[in-house]
Amino acid sequence: HPACSPVLQAARGYARPAPKKKKDTPSHLDDLPPTLLKKDYANLPIMSSVDDVVKRVLSLEMASQKEKMKVKTQQLVEKVRRSPNDNGSFEVQVAILTAKIRTLEEHLQRHPKDKSNRRLMLLAVDRRRKMLGYLRRVNFSTFENTCRQLEIQYSPPQPYSRRLTKRWLVKKALCIKVFKEKQKLKAAVRLKQRRERQARARAARE
User: Fold this and answer.
1) Which parts of this chain are annotated as the region Disordered (predicted)?
2) Which letter does DSSP use for residue 35 in this model?
3) Residue 127 burial by CB count (10 A; 0-12/13-18/19+): exposed, middle or buried?
4) How far apart are CA 72 and CA 39, in angstroms?
5) Alpha-helix runs per DSSP H in the chain
6) Which of the 8 DSSP states describes residue 59?
7) Who's near 60: CB < 8 A, 6+ residues apart?
8) pTM (predicted TM-score)
9) Coil, helix or strand for 37?
10) For residue 105, which of 92, 122, 93, 91 has the smallest C-alpha distance?
């Protein structure tokens, strides 16, 4: 505006718009009911006779994300475990890794520059893929049930393919030639040793 002072006009030029609030990303912990008790107190017999205020304090409504993660991991484990005492099978390990991976994915959506947690997530994904690949080879029905219960879309790794170059072809030909020459030398040594054994055997018979 022409009536404004030069200082005010310069200040308007440096003004920044208010930052937009980021939308809350949906979490895999949202389906946990707030009235559900924490993992450490869920199986205590005394919880049936305590006051409602105590139950609310010990419920997920007042719990941290770490305590919610324990409950969510336990739910995923219960879906795929073979027996009530099964705590170390491949299916249980896949369920634990799945809960960890989904939590790290949500964290990286809010903090995309967190390289440390991104590395941890990639390591967990690679480990889970190896476990699922083993289950797929050994017990396909268990593999299918695990993927269905945990809602995992498994894609087998692509076969490794090397780009053929002139240098690689020359190196391969040299390695094959060296291998064949070494096999010839070993064959000559073995033939010499066999003839010596035969000569000793004839001498012993005579």
Assistant:
1) 1-33
2) T
3) middle
4) 9
5) 6-14, 52-57, 65-80, 90-110, 115-138, 140-150, 166-205
6) B
7) 32, 33, 34, 35, 36, 37, 38, 67, 68, 71
8) 0.64
9) strand
10) 122
Amino acid at 96: I
Query: Tokens for 168?
Result: 């690689």
Q: Left (φ > 0), alpha (ψ -120 to 50) or beta: where does 108 sit?
A: alpha
User: In whole angstroms, what is the distance from residue 103 CA to residue 100 CA?
Assistant: 5
Q: Which two tokens stand for residue 44?
A: 């205590």
Best CA proximity match to 78, nearest among 15, 149, 141: 149
Neighbours of 101 (CB within 10 A): 20
